[in-house]
Amino acid sequence: MMFFFEVLIGGLMSGIMYALVALGFVLIFKASGVFNFAQAAMVLFAAMFMAGMYGDWGVPYWLAIPITILLMIGLAWVIERFVLRHLVNQEPIIMFMATIGIFFAIIGFAEIIWGSRSRTLDVGLPDDMLFIGDMLFQQYDIVTALMVAVLVVLLMIFAQKTRMGRVLRAVADDHQAAQSVGIKLSTVWVVVWSVAGVVAVVAGIVWGGSLGVQPVMVDVAFKALPVLLLGGLTSIHGAIIAGLIIGAGEALAEVYLGPIIGGGIDNWFAYIIAMAFMVWRPEGLFGEKIIERI
Amino acid sequence: MIYRESGQFKKTYEADQAILPLRTDQIFMVGVLLVAFLVIPMVASNYVMNALLLPFLIYALAAIGLNLLVGYCGQISLGTGGFMAVGAFAAWNLATRTELPMPVIFLLAGLITAGTGVLFGLPALRIKGFYLAVTTLAAQFFLIWLLQRPWFNNYSPTGVISAPTVDMFGWTVDSVTDRYYLALIILVIMALIAKNIVRSSTGRKWMAIRDMDVAAEIIGIRPMATKLKAFAVSSFFIGIAGVLWGFLYLGQLEAEAFNIYVSFDVLFMIIIGGLGSILGSIIGAAFVVLVPIFLNVVPSAIGLPLGTAMISYVEIFIFGVLIIFFLIVEPHGIARLWSIVKQKLRLWPFPY
Asked: So what's the ipTM on this one?
């Protein structure tokens, strides 16, 4: 039984990390209706810059992280200026394919600068074992969970209480109505991609800290997609809860189901959970009913 | 001037339905085929044929298949690699476990892939857009995992299996030239079939579904049958491409060779070449195969040699930028540019 709980908690922790990537997707989808495939590439981009600046140039982390955040804002501006602006009013699927292009452009750019070798990224998060009762926890996981909680609360406050948050929600509701009351769409897009960029920085710190920084990291995109579908495309807390469900389900399946049907099932098990759920509720756990029935 | 047509002079339905109505185009096409069948095998070295032309021909076939689904029917798919793997492994298992002749194996492998495609296309009946993209992504991961089970490679200890020699109607396809010819013949036949499918009522139904599914249903097109047909036909093409990729190009099979990045490559081809164009699929495949070669040759020629690693990074970057560029500037890709050129030539040198 103890073993079961350890597996479960390990799964929940990796679920939080998936949720962190899915969160970036949700923010952008909510505000602009763009399904941003490049979110995982942004995580890799941020992580590579932090690790690279520290490792190759000796920039301390307290400086490297703000610089990276500025870079992400710059990246958001570039994406808005050179990509999104030209694709306004295109079909969503064209936008989606454009973000696949952004995905590769960002990865290629980061690799041109930093190469593809594996680096470590250790910003000084505590990393010891911790026993609560008989159960073994990693301090790192707990700190991560707290960071994510704080991030979500901050995002909620940003979306609900600030002026910019109201603007974002207005744009999400209706682009044209928002424009007609004087909201500049281009600014909003830069802001929302920047916020997603900041989320990517946090995700980069967390992922890079636990797995090391290397281009394979973008494969987390393929884990975050089912999280996104399960949680509903527009719900922040949906992303977190779905991340937990998928992380736990995946870990348990790998341990208990894996030996029966052969290992390595965690690559696709998340998709099975998400798809099985979508048969019942196509809009996901907390999504708005946006799917057109055909 | 180059195209001298000055009105509609067609007198028969045959003339009206010709794929290439103009004499100039017909001559051009015959010329291309002559070059492909006679000149290239004589002048191309084995290296060029093996490293450039074979992957180009096979990728072109896969791109045509995907274009039928994405470009014509509007159902996005990221599972191309997985379906290619299904075709390759189905053919390998049929070849090693049965005594069937090779052409039958090719057909059966295509049909098995078509069945798999229909199975994973079923969600398309209820969902579309991103949701469908993610479902096909699930197909990609699941199929690759499934094909790594020991039964599919006959309990090979390494998981890598070597492909049998292809024997077509007594023609043993062994040398590079033979393999080039087989791939070329199959591509030409399949491209012709694809071209005719998209001009038929099936193709028009696909385009109606793509442009607006609700309206298509109202004018009497059954979305379910139409979409599943698109998945089946597209997967058949992709499956055959998978067989060729494994048997003719790689020579040995392992499921990991058909990973998600193969799917992306084929998607790039149809975006760059042109969504909804058979010619575009072929041009796109040529483009994607040529860009790495180009990056290898040009920087060192202008005195700026790049390392091998750097070339692969630059390649990734350039592909990303090209995708965005084409989506913004010309969503119908190079094929559209080609038809614009033709339109201009029609009026040249006296445009009005």
From this structure: 0.82
